[in-house]
Amino acid sequence: MLIIDEEGNEISAITAGRIYHGMKPVPGDHAYAARVDDKVLVEEILPRSGILQRPSPLGRSTQIIAANVNRVLVMVSLKNPRFTAGFVNRALISAEWNKLPATIVVNKMDLCTGDADRSLKEKILTVYGQDGAGYPVFPVSCENGYGTDLLLEHIKRSTVVMTGPSGSGKTSLAKYYNPSLDLRIGELNPKTSKGKHTTVSARLILLDKEITLIDTPGLRMFSIENIPDNELQFCFPEFLPFIGKCRFRDCIHMAEPGCAVKSASENGYIHMDRYNAYRKFIEETE
Ligand SMILES: Nc1nc2c(ncn2[C@@H]2O[C@H](COP(=O)(O)OP(=O)(O)OP(=O)(O)O)[C@@H](O)[C@H]2O)c(=O)[nH]1
Ligand SMILES: [Mg+2]
Ligand SMILES: [Zn+2]
């Protein structure tokens, strides 16, 4: 395992299992390490804050993707692989469930050439941006650098974990910001335009502006089935102004009469796509 010392040097270290009280080290962990003979031994993992974890699809155990992070970058591409709202919604729900602020990065804007591409980009901004779900959305290109300065400014002085489908360009973004890094960028499957799961383990990268970036392997999807029906609503930040205003106190905003969330979506205060996504998730977990 690689650890980074106080001066920012990467050092190869080993762990002594027994000292963790069952805690396995995860990317972003803060730890004490000591030199023992010619080895560096991780001796203690410090208490974690800001954890991004995901349940295994069957909900039996959870996997910590990163620790001590204060923002999640949901990294997707406009195309190759094509943007899917389902992935973004699940990733955002996971971030909210973990009480971490999220930012959406839409990569490969250099491929935004036709009318269909431009309207998809506009739609993403409308649904998820400040006038929609309220998330910061950054269209970028690791190919020509479009939007990357603004994004860098947005994440300064923070530790961010990048998550997204394989091939969206997570590692490419890290490499764009620090070209001297020895990181593997993957090719896309020519038939499906999807990634080939190039990054196989998470990697912590220090950038200037006091930014720590955690690159992770691409995910097929975030499982959200562990979230109880009556809590899912709180993972949609744009619902919050309407929650508590429904006729029934225990309304979960499905078929109940007098539902303030439903009527907000009908009157354009909540984007219909997001309300429908919420309904679909509730129906799926039933
Ligand atoms: N056109 C274009 N291609 C890009 C851009 N960013 C990345 N790519 C390409 O997309 C492919 C996948 O990039 P990676 O950075 O390996 O993607 P990843 O998200 O790290 O994928 P995994 O490690 O498999 O999860 C590579 O062929 C990159 O060259 C971009 O902004 N524009
Ligand atoms: Mg990668
Ligand atoms: Zn309601």
| Category by helix and strand content | alpha/beta
Could you say how many structural domains there are in total? 3
Helix content: 10-25%
Instruction: State the distance separating the first and last CA atoms.
Output: 41 Å
What small molecules does this complex bind? guanosine-5'-triphosphate, magnesium ion, zinc ion
- How large a portion of the residues is in β-strands, by DSSP E? 15-25%
Low-confidence stretches: none
Query: Mean of residue pLDDT?
Result: 93
CATH top-level class of the largest domain: Alpha Beta
Which CATH-level-2 architecture of the largest domain?
Answer: 3-Layer(aba) Sandwich
CATH superfamily of the largest domain: P-loop containing nucleotide triphosphate hydrolases
Report the radius of gyration as a whole number of Å: 20 Å
According to CATH, what is the topology of the largest domain? Rossmann fold
Globally, the shape reads globular
Query: What's the number of helices?
Result: 7
What does the model show?
With 286 residues, this protein is of the alpha/beta class. Helix content is 23%, strand content 21%. It has helices at residues 85-97, 115-128, 148-154, 170-177, 229-232, 260-266, 272-285; strands spanning 2-4, 10-12, 14-15, 31-36, 39-45, 52-55, 62-66, 71-77, 102-107, 137-139, 159-163, 203-207, 211-215. The strands form four sheets. Strands 10-9-8-11-13-12 form a six-stranded mixed β-sheet, sandwiched between helices. The longest helix has 14 residues, at 115-128. It binds guanosine-5'-triphosphate (GTP), magnesium ion and zinc ion. Residues 107-108, 110-111, 141-143, 164, 166-172, 185-188, 195, 197-199, 217-218 line the site of guanosine-5'-triphosphate. Residues 246, 251, 253, 256, 259-261 line the site of zinc ion.
